[in-house]
Amino acid sequence: MLQFVVSSQTNPYWNIAVENFLVEHAEAVTLYLWRNRRTVVIGQNQNPYSEVNLDALEADDGYLMRRKTGGGAVYHDDGNLNFSFVVPKPIYDQGRQFRVIQRAVESFGLHTELSGRNDILCEGRKFSGNAFSKGRFNDLHHGTILIKGNMEDLARYLKPKPAKLQKHGVQSVRSRVVNLADLNPAISAEALVPRLRKAFEDEYAGTADEISFDSLRSNPRVCELFEEFSSPEWKYSNWRTFSAHRSGQFDWGGVELQLSVEDGVISNVQIASDALDLAALDEARRLLTDASNANVPQSDNPIINDIIKLAFGQ
After folding, report:
1. Range scoring the smallest mean pLDDT among 5-9, 93-97, 151-155, 262-266
2. What angle do CA 156, 248, 297 make, to 5 degrees?
3. Structure confidence by residue, pLDDT tens digits, 158-187
4. Do 275 and 70 meet the contact criterion of CB atoms below 8 Å apart?
């Protein structure tokens, strides 16, 4: 069985609340499409103060939204169409999900390819970034489709890391991404939505039942999730309360550590990273808490090992 949902909202907290509700409760393969108004979305483990120009975003009545998946910061506006695949665990298949997006975009006569850390490119430039998470019954694959986004706002609100740009030989945020409408003016969100539905139904060989977004939004659990995602505690966490800072760039991604150190022992740690392996970040956080120079933890996981060495200046 297939389900198809299109949001009627541009408030990011309602949109992500419905997404998380679907992950918790959907009983069918679901494609959910949504758009946010002037929103910077950060990964679960990112520091908003180092990733986002919050003063500019807030001055323009924009939104900061923290998702529950890994990866880096992205900018959403009305020119960006977002998608979520919610799939029961036994039949979850990233390859099929990527093919839905590629089929829909290629129906406009463009060529797409997968690249790097789960990006989709057209003519060598990124138009879609993707992230993933696992639920109890369903797994989630969600991402962006940049159609006609405001590149000036993107560059103004996001803070690309200088080390990351130098490592990859990138001169600016703008040079790494592309609007699909610049490659084919016929592409718009309104034109792409039915093609995504067709590609979804073709890939899964079925007819999707359309589910009303507003009926989902009225669910008490969705309202509870809305309050969680819009809360300052979730968005900002404790990133201003730490006493020591470390940052580094590795093959697997960038990482930033904020440490509270008392009498030479790490009493608290926050790990900001665009790494997709959330379990490794959680384990590194656990190992570092209560660690000291006299008791440096060890790990065979290269991500965890790099983080531990960074924390202790090794």
Report:
1. 262-266
2. 140
3. 986 554 434 433 334 444 889 999 999 999
4. yes
Mean pLDDT (whole number) for 222-237: 93
* Cα–Cα distance, 235 to 65 (Å, whole number): 6
**What is the arithmetic mean of pLDDT over 136-145?**
95
Task: Tell me the domains of the chain and their CATH numbers.
Answer: 2-236 (3.30.930.10), 244-311 (3.30.390.50)
pTM for the full predicted model: 0.75
H, E, C per residue of the chain: CEEEEECCCCCHHHHHHHHHHHHHHCCCEEEEEECCCCEEEECCCCCHHHHECHHHHHHCCCEEEECCCCCCCEEECCCEEEEEEEEEHHHCCHHHHHHHHHHHHHCCCCCEEEECCCEEEECCEEEEEEEEEECCCEEEEEEEEECCCCHHHHHHHECCCHHHHHHCCCCCHHHHECCHHHHCCCCCHHHHHHHHHHHHHHHHCCCEEEECHHHHHCCHHHHHHHHHHHCHHHHHCCCCCCCEEEEEEECCEEEEEEEEEECCEEEEEEEEECCCCHHHHHHHHHHHCCCECCECCCCCCHHHHHHHHHHCCC
Tell whether the model's pLDDT for residue 189 goes beyond 70: yes
Phi, then psi, of 218 in degrees rounded to 5: -80, -5
* Residue 278 and residue 70 in contact, taking contact as beta carbons nearer than 8 Å: yes
Two structure tokens written together for 266: 């790490």
pLDDT of residue 163: 46
150 residue type, one letter: N
Q: How confident is the model at residue 146 (pLDDT cuts 50, 70, 90)?
A: very high
Structural tokens at position 197:
């539905």
Could you tell me the CA-to-CA distances from 146 to 76, 98, 125, 155, 188 in Å, in that order?
Answer: 8, 15, 11, 14, 10
Q: What is the largest CA-CA distance in the chain?
A: 63
